[in-house]
Amino acid sequence: MIVNMSDKATEQEIAHIIDRIREAGYQPHVTRGTERTIVAAVGSGRRHEIEALQVAPGVDNVVAIAQPFKLVSRQVRPERTVVRVNGVAIGADEIVVIAGPCSVESREQLLDTAHAVKRAGATMLRGGAYKPRTSPYDFQGLGLEALKILRDAREETGLPVVTEVMSTEDVDVICEYVDMLQVGARNMQNFALLRRLAKANKPILLKRGPSATVKEWLLAAEYLLAGGNREVVLCERGIKTFETEMRNTMDLAAIALARDLSHLPVIADPSHGTGKQSLIAAVSRAAVAVGADGLIIEVHPCPERALSDGPQSLDFTGFEKVMQALTEPLRRALTPPRPIPVAAQSCS
Ligand code: PEP
Ligand code: MN
User: Which of 136, 225, 272, 285 could disulfide-link to 237, CB 3.0 to 4.6 Å?
Assistant: First the structure.
């Protein structure tokens, strides 16, 4: 349930509504917009007591939320959220490009990549320290050593850094070294991890699970917001379908849908979404065209030697080309449709 306060509601009236929501057994979540304040009643409680608040002073109306996700929904917050990551705004006017290797493999590899992606125009750096690998025999990441390298790369380049967190045990140490924590696709529904990250004092990049619906993805984000962390960026990274030529199927419409249903910024990961270097430029342009607030792209100094995700990683020249492609106008300008002559008819 949402209590929409009137634009003239006083602080005392808002405080009264917050108290009444608590009394009715719900948790109050206050969103202060530019014109009015909205108080959401989250959880389960005595619904009729909230409905009755329609007649309380300072209340405009009380509405039921149609979607199971509440705090994430645009009904609760019609204005778009901008998430700030150490000086970089995600969800504002500029498209944010996060680039870097799938895994941090060495100091030299990460620093060379960080400088190269910065020169090409990236505004954030990525790099995996703890890697979720399908096989236990594959490279698992350098852990703490990688975190130190990521911190040094941020100091040298000024690029804020994002890395994946796989376990609640690692949250504190990762928070010491990086600016944003990524919840990987495989962990989207790791509810213990989501609850822990809701209490972390860092923005979260929440990837969509390979077989998650958009509703499940937004409900995963709801765990973070309900637990107290509102700094959440969603990331579409492709889903499993019957297609076998690509690693995943990039669900571009889900980017537009998530932005329609939620106020949170949404970025796209064409690297995992396609698994193919050759498709990154096209899918990046398409993602921006459907409304993505940014991109996360894997870049490696020598993809053929990468310890993870080489086939989808761009080398430095490839990444520069993608950055240029992002600024080019659409190649085929749309020709206006020719008018179709229609005999004037009256409608019945
Ligand atoms: C990654 O970003 O390298 C990664 C493992 O991503 P995902 O969780 O989307 O597979
Ligand atoms: Mn990867």
Answer: 272
Q: Ligand 1 centroid to 184 CA: how many Å?
A: 5
Q: What is the pTM of this model?
A: 0.90
Give the pLDDT confidence of 101-117 residue by residue, as tens digits: 999 999 999 999 999 99
Tokens of 290: 């459907």
Please compute Rg for the chain using Cα positions. Answer: 23
Residue 297 CA to residue 267 CA, distance in Å, equals: 11
Pick the atom of ligand 1 nearest to 187's CA: 8
Q: Which residues line ligand 1 (CB under 6 A)?
A: 102, 128, 132, 184-186, 207, 237, 269, 272
Domains of the chain: 2-63 (3.30.70.1140), 83-333 (3.20.20.70)
Is residue 186 within 8 Å of 213, Cβ to Cβ? no
Q: In this structure, are residues 36 and 7 in contact, taking their beta carbons and an 8 Å threshold?
A: yes
**Cα separation, 170 vs 48, whole angstroms:** 43
